[in-house]
Amino acid sequence: MLLCCLLIAGCASTPPRSYYRTPSSALEDPETTLLGRAFETEMAAHPGDSGILLVPSGEWAFGSRAGLANLAERTIDVQYYIWEVDTTGRLLAERLLRAADRGVRVRMLLDHITTKDTDFRFAAMAAHPNIEVRLFNPFETRGFRNIELITDLNRLNHRMHNKAFIADNAVAIVGGRNVGDNYFGVDTAANFRDLDLAVAGPVVQEISRSFDLFWNSEFAAPVDAVVEPTLTESEFEQQRQRLYQWVDELENFPYPIDLGGDAVLARLEALRDAFVWAPARALYDLPDKLSTREEDLADHLIEVGKRKDHEVMTESAYVIPGPAGIERTRLNQEQNVRQRLLTNSLATNDVAAAHAGYAKYRFDLIRSGVELYELRPDARLDRENWSLLGGKSKASLHTKAFVVDHELVGIGSFNVDPRSVQLNTEIVILVDSREVADQVLAYMDRGTLPENSYRVMLEFDREIGAERLVWITENDGQEVRYHSDPEVGPWRRFTAWMMGLLPIEKHL
Which candidate among 17, 63, 206, 504 keeps its CA 20 to 30 Å from the CA of 368? Predict the structure, then answer.
């Protein structure tokens, strides 16, 4: 309830505090590195195009990031909304430290709203001479965040939702995943269905330009200017050795973490033929999204949507279309454009308020011709993309992807909700390729199978004399129908309904 009060409070806006920061930029000559040379033949054969590879599984999502850290020679740039300090978060942080030990320059840019209890650990990493950590739009204090939200909500409600892992400005991972166990299929309670792209070629330099804009912006504060105290050299060394020892002694982690550069390069070479070379570009918001008058990412995506002829297929964790979005779906229906959407059910949504914002539009979406699907918490397919540790965990949807007319693909951090449109900064990789579209549609199609999702439809109820929602799925080949949100109890339904009454939609 405190969160709801904060969201509807009237607040004055103050600019971020000015911090001294040394400007820096992405590696200017990526072609001089192993990663830069890895695709030189393909780049010469496909001038102007970029290499695209889907990353659907937790193992490959973790392995690609760890592998790039192991192989990087000059620079690593990472930009994330969430970086947990759980097992995978600590492992990937350790990979960055190992890279820094080799002389690699590491720049970490993290959103400060997600690091309340962990920012001091990132401050510890910044004690390494080759690692610099910055926090996006930081809070002034660590202990009184709720008070700051009340007094400075207009500024602090502006968050960096981007996700990117860039090695030597030559290969990058961009998509829906943050860093944490449940993004890589190793959490024992709940894991996300999610999708990234591994990219090479010119689009990587576009991603790096986006990173540099954020890194050098007034919103990026050096972590040691926000978190005190800094470590002495001996204290840092003790913490580093404890982390290294923890990794060396770690047991039962399902994925390899210590592959040498030769092994990583061999795996990359084995996957080289799987990359699709096609026109691609990075669309991204500017750091000062709330004040700039330039077109932002949402404007570009709306224009992309207007150019469709046949179908729009979408998979999004959070969907709150608003009246304008409903009007676009209605116009699509008039133009005989097929529309399909897979999103979270109440049982799989990790943000109850977001589901409340979505639920009020389900009738209108279906009436506007949208084929609506919601993920099942026991979705079978997603377990194939998780480790044995996550094999019995609950499924949740975190993908942000769309395909237009079976050839234009968008994958990134953008959700179909007001927060992505108006408040958060986002990044999306846009790919013009029927081959990539085929792969993404196959991924989406599997998500809408009855064993993985509910088809949400309208049916006429004679008893009440009106239409009502029905959730249709299959168990062991037999059709099952629900007439209220499946697999949740009365309290969760009531909580979502109550949240739907609050005037907080623009903040969701």
Answer: 504
Please give the residue that has the higher pLDDT: either 506 or 479.
479
Active site residues per annotation: 161, 163, 168, 398, 400, 405
Task: Kindly state whether residue 22 falls inside one of the protein's structural domains.
Answer: no
Q: How many angstroms separate the Cα of 231 from the Cα of each of 115, 197, 202, 281?
A: 18, 37, 39, 41
Same domain, 114 and 241: yes
For residue 418, the number of C-alpha atoms closer than 13 Å in the C-beta half-sphere is 16
Tell me, yes or no, whether 103 and 38 share the same domain. yes
Q: Assess if residue 415 is contained within a domain.
A: yes
- Cβ neighbors of 315 (< 8 A, separation 6 or more) are 195, 341, 342, 343, 397, 399, 400, 401, 402, 444, 447
Domain total in the chain = 2
User: Which pair of structure tokens corresponds to residue 28?
Assistant: 């200017």
Mean pLDDT of the chain: 90
Q: How far apart are CA 172 and CA 65, in angstroms?
A: 9
Residue with tokens 């081959």: 435
Domain membership of residue 235 as a residue range = 29-276
Q: 8 in a domain, yes or no? A: no
336 and 263 share a domain?
Answer: no
Asked if 401 and 273 touch (Cβ cutoff 8 Å), the reply is no
| Nearest residue to 429 via CA among 280, 252, 264 | 280
Same domain as 307, residue 241:
no
pTM for this structure?
0.93
Together in a domain, 312 and 194: no
Note whether 312 and 254 are same-domain residues: no
Residues 131-180 have pLDDT tens digits of 999 999 988 776 666 676 766 777 788 899 999 999 999 999 999 999 99
**79, 217 Cβ separation under 8 angstroms:** no
Q: Return d(Cα 425, Cα 210) in angstroms, integer.
A: 11
Angle (CA) 328 333 337, round 5°: 95
Q: What is the mean pLDDT of residues 178-199?
A: 94
**Beta-strand runs (E) in 398-503:** 400-404, 408-412, 427-432, 453-461, 466-475, 478-482
